């Protein structure tokens, strides 16, 4: 692994960890609004499907072994059995999907990048989260989907910010579209 790749992975791992300190608790849902999912989106966008997924997987592994890296200083195997379980699994799918989608797109503009982050980031993370929300609230999956939809407006705003960052810093990615 090249030093440049390792440095970018370490940088995004640090950004994911630090962004966990910024959280807005949502009473009754059990899952806070966090900036971590925006950093997950950016990891997939900047690092690509391979390195982005590896970075997010490393983050989740650190959480699993007990590092308190999630909002509220949570960590350990118990966090993978709760309302946020689906969202955490969605992080992994999101980084891969975003990296994959960026590989397939030839020309980047605001709307293309925004749709990649919205679909690959917000929709996938919230969709995966709907399963654990439904299970732990003991309701139907459709009800879990409605609860997860509560996060979509804020996640859409995060996708807009991620789009702006990506378009401003696209020369620092692993993608081939560097114009």
TrEMBL record:
Belongs to the BioY family. It comes from Candidatus Enterococcus lemimoniae. The chain crosses the membrane at residues 5-23, 54-72, 78-102, 114-135, 147-169. This is Biotin transporter. Coiled coil: none annotated. It is a multi-pass membrane protein. It is found in: Cell membrane. Its main location: membrane. The lineage of its organism: Bacteria, Bacillati, Bacillota, Bacilli, Lactobacillales. InterPro entries: BioY. Keywords: Cell membrane, Membrane, Transmembrane, Transmembrane helix, Transport.
